[in-house]
Amino acid sequence: MATEPRLHRPVDVASLAAFRIGFGALLLVAVLRYFAHDWVAEYFLKPAHFFKYWGFEWVRPWPGVGMYLHFGVMAACAVGVLLGYRYRACVVAYGLLFGYAHLIDKTNYLNHYYLVLCVCALMAFLPLDAAWSLDARRDPRVRQNTVPAWMLWALRAQFGVVYSFGGIAKLNADWLLNAQPLSLWLARSSDLPGVGPLLGTAWAAFAFSWAGALFDLSVVPLLLWRRSRRYAFVALVGFHLLTAQLFAIGMFPFFMICGATLFFEADWPKTLLARPRERDRVSVRTSTLTGRFGGHGGAVPVLAVWFALQLLMPLRHLLYPGQMCWTEQGFRFSWNVMLMEKNGSVDFRVVEPRTGRVFRVSPNDYFTPYQTAMMAPQPDMLLEAARVIAADYRQRGVVEPAVYADAFASLNGRPMQRLLDPAVDLARESDGFSNKTWILPMKTELETRTAALARSLP
Amino acid sequence: MRFQIQLGRAWWLLLGVSLSCAPVALPDGDRRVALRGATEQVILPTYAELGTRSAELASLLDELASTPEAADLAAIRRAYRDVRAPLEEAAAFGFGPAVELHSVADIDQSPLDVAKLEAELASEKELTLQEVRSLGANKRGLHAIEYLLFPEDEAELETALLADDLQGERRRRFASVAGQIVADNAEALRAAWDPEMGGYSRRFAEPGRPDSVSVNVQAGLDTLLNESVVLSEVIANVKLGKPLGAVTGGRIDATAQESERSGASLTDMARNVRGIRNVYFGARDDSLEPNLSLLVRAKSPSADRHAREALDAAAAAISAIPEPFTAALDDAPETVTAAYDAVKTLKRVLATEVLSSLGASLKFSDNDGD
Lengths: 458, 370
Fold this sequence. Notes:
The structure holds two protein chains of two kinds. Chain A is of the alpha+beta class. Chain A has helices at about 5-10, 15-35, 40-45, 65-85, 85-105, 110-125, 135-140, 150-170, 175, 180-185, 195-200, 200-225, 225-245, 250-260, 270-275, 280-285, 300-310, 325, 370-375, 380-395, 445-455; strands at about 10, 145-150, 340-350, 355-360, 400-410, 415-420. In chain A, the strands form two sheets. Chain A has a four-stranded antiparallel sheet with strand order 4-3-5-6. In chain A, strands 1-2 form a two-stranded antiparallel ribbon. In chain A, a hairpin with a 5-residue loop joins strand 5 (about 400-410) and strand 6. In chain A, helix 2 packs antiparallel against helix 4 (about 65-85). Chain B has 17 helices and no strands. Chain B is globular and about 65 Å long. Chains A and B meet through helix 3, helix 10, strand 3, strand 4 and helix 19 of A and helix 1, helix 2, helix 12, helix 14 and helix 15 of B.
């Protein structure tokens, strides 16, 4: 257990306090964007049905103006985190409210929303209000100069997991050998001034793909190594600003830039803000600080469990057959960031076995266009949609309705293929963690061409 | 001093970032040319034709009202059908002014509220432009004109529309005023897109300006593609699927078709597909490159081939339905089912392969991705 004393070594709280301020500001912006884009109504009030997470079927939007109040309280909590005012209560409340809102509908899942939840969960146990906060100003007991090193490392590890698994996920043939999906995405920006025409070229797509994978895989060690840290940080900021410019990924780049500041020395904010003459003294002072904290003995084992889960979750897709991006089994909560271009189209058939009557059903009759677009290529959401439709037809008097899906998808520029077995009655299938046998395997290019040739023959 | 130097560096960095985000003149890449081509070669001419045809119909209906004894009803009926052709093609780009001006509803609301229209005709209200305009869109659009021009019983046409009595006069007067309203709305739509008037074409096809409606070229292409996907869905589910009984368990309902009285339902759908085709090829006649087809082909030749095949197959399947559509629903439902399937395939190809090849998104939301 040689690492334990090292993890309990006191480190300056300054970088954590600076992170709290930055993260709080980003949480606030994230909420304000919901009001600015009217997403509260779009995602929580307009839909008649929601795609539930397994075990969270009970989570529903609040009636009336409830969701607006919900997000209003979140904004207030974000300000609390930012200012360090009743910090613990605010970060816990923000995490719970944010989690509740995003458990309402799978449609709105984003990797960085999951990251926000993970970081909020960790922050709830960390005294990030120990400095530069209203809590510390009004209560001397809150104030402290140092925290145990594990607190800093916990947050570093959380961000490190995102980069590492993001990089590992890119080690596949589509990304490295076909430069997909970047080949498709970069061409979108081929009308940008200057670099635009280059972005539409094949070599640019390959360069971005390989550089992206290398960046994700190497940035954490490069940030940890003192000699490369500055350069890695500059590269990281450039990388994220570039992705923010080229792709519609919202707050993600800014959360990651904020998280990357944690990899600097724990006293970096003091060093940055100190006058040049005082810098050496700041460094000496913080290095000799000792903590007056205690009672964190159980923290390291708890964190070990937390991070064991963090490591296992992204690997769970290995338990399922087939390509993860196609089946999407084990896809969520796994840091598969910007990994695929997948579009789908689906229509349902409801059959009444007793009479043989067939009803063709458009998903647009039940879901918003955005929900339909997000659902079409995702098998578990298609299953849930089929159940919603079955329940509706049952209510309309159709006896034991069977629901079949004509679902097609195109992954990373491939020709569209059937995603689900059209002969399987989805109304009879149950959701859960077992393998979904009704997802058809993705055909290889050779198989697709052979099938097309066979169809064209007389 | 060192602190000041670092601050100075930070300002330079900020300046650099700001400059890189500042608007600058954009080069005319293929995507931009394709967007402009679709706007100038497809959207503007289609709306121009809609304006012209609507004005011709309005003029003929006006003549009918003023000199019924000289009316050529066959010519008026032809003029009615001629309006529908560009109107149905324009459904492939029913965004912007078409939404803002409520043009679709004002010109072609369906289904028609026959009972209220008859009540209006039977009333003693003066049929002024203002009075008819104040009626709901489902009582005064093209389908109201269709109702008057194409009675269920052909023999009733002359007795009803050319009758030398008050009822006949009111019907002619109503048709004339309704025709004028349709023409006014079509002209308003054309003017809104006209680069010299409303200027929407410029705002749409030239992203990056302060008054542009698209944040960038791709957003404009996304809009075009989204409209095509939505229209193909409407053709399949509403125009074919509803009469076919696809949504009612096979109960055929000829009254659910769009243009039953004038027998234009099939040509309406054919023109819809033609509109999608025009957008895809960037021209109303021959393909004009660079266009969406070229952009798709550059990324995936097979996706472009599939899109062309699907467009051809959808058009062929619709034209294979024997006229009139009402009879085909009973006598040759397999042809209607084949057309339904062909249009569904078109929608699938557009929503998956074409969408992916363009790096586009079905942007029913401006939510982030990651």
